[in-house]
Design goal:
heterodimer; A: alpha+beta; seven-stranded antiparallel β-sheet; 20 strands; 20% strand; globular; B: 10 helices
Chain lengths: 475, 365
């Protein structure tokens, strides 16, 4: 039997198996710039169905690519060879919300923002808040260990995942972690979070919920140079304050946002810093004062404190509209994601502008400055001959620059396809081999999202599966 | 590799170490890796040794080599303005925290750990009481350099506060109990220490009214809430619950009973767990409300009592872990987790010959 026929036996529901060329085309890419080839798409609705799908794919030797909403930017959900996409969007239930324990069970297909809206009446929220939170899923967030502006104080996805139900490469179902702290034995949760579907398929998650802060203050500081804004970030951290968020935006991005949705950002500023402090009322005023003074010491031209909920919402609307604004302004964009030590922000930003200028690229910046997590964004038109190559070459330079400054390849988007060729710039062959061995422990047959994260040659794991869409007897 | 001259690094074993084993204290991680390569080839069980404070009762194969990290004590790179610290594993927690305190920073490691090393606490997965506010230790390990069971020196993570560059080996090492290799160096995320801190003697019922306390502890003598923040914030919170704020963090004395059990249960069950340990005649206990950990000390050992506590904890998705017992052959962990096969394969990825503390993890791994 063909794989689709086998899949239809275990997934009998409406549109649970897709193989129409148009569907395959839609599922062949994520929100980034690469696309792959899809053999079939499976949309299971239960853990048992996911396990059955994995066993079928393994039998047919067709690689499996787990997928949430497809908002990833690094190609994590893009197959490297004709693969079976397992979209987990239909496992989208929220259950057992426990107000006292501040936890909830969720399916991987639950949309990030829906969870926070669901728990809002209890005064609780799910802290990781990627910019795509109104579209991305919790399962996808686990794939990339997603962050967001408010991860500065609260930590990224991994800090908010207490338990994971995992369908392994063999189609077995195991639970990692639980409601009790410090699970016995090796803590495998952290290996699965951020593994881009290479360690198994996550089918249930026990998430930690965070109480809403009693008081919040949001500040908008304007500067006449990006360096002054970056310096403010360093000054705040050095002053011993870790705000809830510190986001930096440069002039091209301010203009794009204002043209898209007028949020009252100062168009004349070279850069703005959005800072938020949250907590007990007494602490919030003191910390807001620290941020304001740091800004003034670095030469802020304006310090605005949101006086009303509406003003605060408007500032965040502007921040979270940034990528939409760019999509409105240019046909394509390439969004970087590197991390540098916060003390090196100023020099690294200057060098990134230099690279963008040298390649003649239109560059806009909005990023999680408090974490040192840079997101230079290049707006371009892929139809222009040679443009994508130029964008990629500049991207490599920017990433290498970050590594030289003591940073990392990716802070929250993942390595996926886009950066795996740079892994050897960060890690030695022995380091990469250790990563490959860890992966083999989870997936000895190399069936789960092959060709991702680790570069070819890390070890002999990515020799390539041959997709068999033909009846087994013919193979 | 046969040229290792183990004798060159041989030292007098620490008093608490297994007497049959030879003790070695190599001067650097590369040398530790050579010892591990030799032990792996020879099939000799190895017990990594930091301060010897978080070992728990002996389990599994008797070690033939005790590998001390006392040669690795350097502060490699402290970036106060970036809130990161790179330190070698054998450095004492007390020394490191004292150094960080000079700049009002903390690695949020266990508060009372005389003689404990950074690497030992991480390998043991030990967190301080302040985990209620700052999360467990595993949230703060940004980069590790480890010598694997077969003698490879592997770096993972990076010296930045946010990172998804490959698999999170640093987090895996936290709580691995030496089963994967010897941690040689780590980069830790630091937190600023707030200007004011206080300890409030309160009723347990008051715990819910406090916003983001550092810790909420209950002991055999009463309940204490630990707060930190600006002076106004701490005073304001104390006033709101009508409690007197004693300045500073007055942690209870650590338990040193020969018979000690730790219950790990979902946080809402801490009050019930306290009832259970009281009924099982604990002499003293340290209950971490909001976290889900209750450590209890007993005047004498009773396996029957362990079984009762364990049955209750496991029924609620938790565990009862033996921290200390004078009796040999006690099951330290109880029912092994369902992921035990996966755990065995993960261990083999780091320690293919199975020489690192064989049998120490749950499930006899």
């Amino acid at each position: 039997m063909t794989i689709t026929a086998d899949l239809r036996e275990v997934l009998p529901g409406k549109d649970q198996v897709l193989d129409h060329p148009l569907d395959l085309y839609v599922y062949a890419k994520d929100a980034g710039v690469t696309s792959g080839e899809v053999a079939a798409v499976a949309l299971p609705e239960t853990t048992q169905q996911v396990a059955a799908v994995v066993r079928i794919a393994a039998r047919h030797r067709v690689p499996i690519v787990a997928r949430g909403a497809g908002t990833g930017l690094s190609g994590g959900a893009v197959p490297t060879q004709p693969g079976l996409i397992v979209a987990l969007t239909r496992l989208n239930r929220i259950w057992d919300v426990d107000e006292e324990a501040r936890t909830a069970w969720v399916g991987p297909g639950v949309i990030n923002l829906d969870l926070s809206q669901h728990t809002a009446p209890l005064g609780l929220h799910y802290a990781p808040d990627p910019s795509s939170q109104s579209a991305c899923t919790i399962g996808g967030n686990i794939g990339t260990n997603a962050g967001g502006p408010h991860c500065l104080a609260e930590g990224t996805t991994v800090a908010h995942v207490l338990a994971l139900e995992l369908v392994t490469a063999d189609g077995d179902v195991v639970m990692l972690g639980g409601a009790a702290p410090d699970p016995l034995g090796l803590d495998l949760r952290g290996v699965v979070v951020g593994s881009e579907g290479t360690m198994g398929l996550v089918t249930k998650i026990l998430v930690k919920l965070t109480p809403n802060a009693p008081d919040v203050r949001t500040l908008l500081l304007a500067f006449d140079s990006i360096e002054a804004a970056a310096e403010t970030v360093s000054r705040v951290i050095a002053a011993g304050v870790v705000p809830a968020a510190m986001e930096l935006m440069d002039r091209p991005m301010i203009e794009a946002v204002e043209n898209f949705k007028a949020c009252g950002f100062p168009r004349a500023a070279a850069a703005i810093l959005i800072a938020e402090v949250a907590g007990h009322a007494a602490a919030v005023s003191a910390e807001a004062e620290v941020v304001a003074s740091a800004g003034e010491a670095a030469g802020a031209t304006e310090v605005r404190i949101a006086a009303t909920e509406l003003e605060r919402d408007l500032i965040w609307l502007g921040r979270k509209s940034a990528f939409g604004a760019v999509a409105y302004a240019a046909p394509d964009y390439y969004l970087h994601d590197t991390v540098v030590p916060r003390t090196r922000l100023v020099e690294v930003m200057s060098a990134i502008y230099e690279i963008g200028g040298r390649y003649g690229l239109t560059m806009l910046n909005v990023f999680h400055a408090g974490d040192g997590n840079l997101h230079p964004l290049v707006a371009f038109d892929a139809k222009e001959p040679g443009m994508l190559e130029k964008v990629r070459a500049a991207a490599d330079e920017m990433v290498k620059l970050s590594i030289e400054a003591g940073g990392a390849l990716s802070g929250e988007h993942g390595v996926g396809l886009e950066k795996k060729h740079l892994m050897a710039d960060v890690y030695s062959p022995i380091d990469l081999d250790a990563q490959a061995r860890l992966r083999d422990a989870f997936d000895p047959g190399g069936i789960l999202n092959p060709g991702k994260i680790l570069p070819e040659g890390s070890r002999c794991y990515d020799f390539g599966l041959v997709a068999s869409l033909e009846p087994e007897s013919a193979a | 590799m046969t040229a290792v001259t183990i004798e060159d690094w041989q030292v007098t074993p620490p008093p608490a170490a297994p007497p049959e084993a030879i003790a070695v204290a190599p001067p650097d991680l590369e040398s530790i890796a050579r010892v591990l390569e030799w032990a792996s080839n020879e099939g000799r069980p190895v017990l990594p040794w930091g301060g010897g404070t978080h070992l728990g009762p002996p389990a599994g194969d008797a070690p033939e080599v005790v590998l001390l990290t006392s040669g690795l004590t350097d502060i490699v790179d402290w970036q106060p303005d970036d809130l990161t610290l790179v330190v070698q594993a054998g450095a004492l927690i007390s020394d490191v925290e004292a150094m960080l305190a000079d700049r009002n920073q903390s690695a949020v490691l266990p508060e009372q750990a005389p003689g404990s090393t950074i690497g030992g606490a991480i390998a043991a997965g030990a967190s301080g009481y302040r985990r209620l506010r700052y999360g467990p230790t595993r949230e703060r390990i940004l980069e590790t350099v480890v010598a694997t069971g077969d003698g490879r020196v592997v770096k993972a993570g990076a010296r930045v506060v946010k990172n998804v560059t490959g698999y999170d080996i640093p987090r895996l090492l936290c709580g691995s109990l030496g089963s994967l290799g010897v941690i040689g160096q780590v980069c830790l995320k630091l937190w600023p220490v707030a200007e004011s801190a206080a300890s409030l003697a309160v009723d347990v019922a008051t715990f819910d009214e406090l916003y983001r306390p550092l810790a909420l502890l209950e002991t055999e003598t009463g309940a204490t809430a630990y707060l930190s923040g600006t002076a106004d914030e701490v005073a304001g919170q104390a006033k709101a619950v009508g409690a007197q704020a004693l300045p500073g963090l007055r942690w209870p004395a650590p338990l040193s009973h020969d018979s000690r059990i730790e219950l790990r249960i979902p946080p809402p069950l801490v009050a019930a767990a306290v009832e259970h340990v009281r009924r099982s005649e604990a002499e003293a206990f340290r209950a971490q409300h909001g976290v889900g950990i209750v450590e209890a000390g007993f005047a004498s050992w009773s396996t029957e009592r362990l079984d009762e506590l364990r049955a209750w904890a496991e029924r609620h998705g938790g565990a009862a872990v033996v921290l200390a017992t004078p009796v040999a052959g006690v099951d330290r962990w109880g029912t092994a987790p369902g992921s035990v096969d996966l755990q065995r394969r993960v261990k083999a990825a780091f320690d293919p010959r199975g020489v690192m503390v064989p049998g120490r993890l749950p499930g006899g791994i």
